[in-house]
Design a protein that fits this description.
265 residues, 9 helices, alpha/beta, Undecaprenyl pyrophosphate synthetase, 6 strands
Length: 265
């Protein structure tokens, strides 16, 4: 009875969700779509535990691979919605505290993910983060990222990324640049401004994200785009990242469109 009930619910959803998606699309004004969307891809490990394979496997690597497979699908939805920049957080600087076995597997999956994104030729891939934290073979794969069409979506892959570290790096680069110009420490300090720091962030030259999405039910940013998110709208979704659906993305866009952005006023 339970199996038949579950099968019936799945059948009903398979009919209703496409109708619901079309209704959401009709209600959205894509001219109001956020230009830059950031996503914290959370819940891969918990998804694996909740969805064991036929042999009962619940490895973290299996969850990370399922999450990686969702990225290309998600970027396709962003194209449809006319988003211009997407930042996806693949690996935080804190993730380097994980066990060597899990970290090694995760870095390999990230390398394969970047290769897969490049192979499509559809998007402009830009690595952002502390590249010095990464093994040389992964840094080489990231350096080989090639641009696609200039009008294509810019995809920031945040790897070895931490918001506080980004701000520290930006200030360091500013001071190095000031020194190269022959400015004294006092003069450099006097000239320091929010605009100057923004020019040295990993995302320099890009618009700040208007919408930040985090999956898995966690309601915190964890330092993601710490500087850039000062005026961002947040959307928290209960679904684990591998289960994130187009309808969930459309709901996020709808929630964004209904908010009155005050920008501190």
């Amino acid at each position: 009875m339970n199996r038949r009930g579950s099968a019936l619910r799945r059948a009903v959803k398979s009919i209703l969700y496409p109708l619901y998606e079309r209704r959401l699309v009709r209600a959205l004004d894509f001219s109001q779509t956020p230009h830059h969307v950031g996503v914290i891809l959370d819940g891969n490990r918990r998804w694996a535990k909740a969805n064991p394979d036929e042999l009962g496997g619940t490895s973290a690597a299996r969850g990370h691979r399922a999450g990686a497979a969702k990225i290309i699908e998600f970027l396709g939805w962003c194209e449809e919605a006319q988003v211009k920049v997407v930042t996806i957080w693949l690996l935080s600087s804190d993730n380097f505290k994980r066990s060597p076995e899990e970290l090694s597997a995760l870095l390999e999956i990230i390398g394969e993910t970047v290769d897969g994104l490049k192979a499509t030729g559809r998007w402009n891939i830009k690595p952002v983060g502390s590249m010095e934290l990464l093994p040389e073979n992964l840094r080489e794969r990231l350096r080989e990222s090639k641009s696609a069409d200039p009008k294509a979506i810019e995809v920031n892959v945040a790897i070895g990324y931490g918001g506080r570290r980004e701000i520290v790096d930006a200030v360091k680069k500013y001071m190095e640049d000031a020194g190269a110009q022959g400015l004294s420490l006092q003069t450099a300090a006097e000239k320091l401004s929010t605009e100057k720091i923004a020019n040295f962030l990993y995302t320099a030259g890009q618009p700040d994200p208007e919408l930040l999405i985090r999956t898995s039910g966690e309601q915190r940013l964890g330092g993601f785009l710490l500087w850039q998110s000062a005026q961002s709208e947040f959307y928290f979704c209960e679904a684990y990242w591998p289960d994130f659906r187009r309808v969930d993305f459309l709901r996020a866009l709808r929630a964004y469109s209904l908010r009155h952005r005050r920008f501190g006023a």
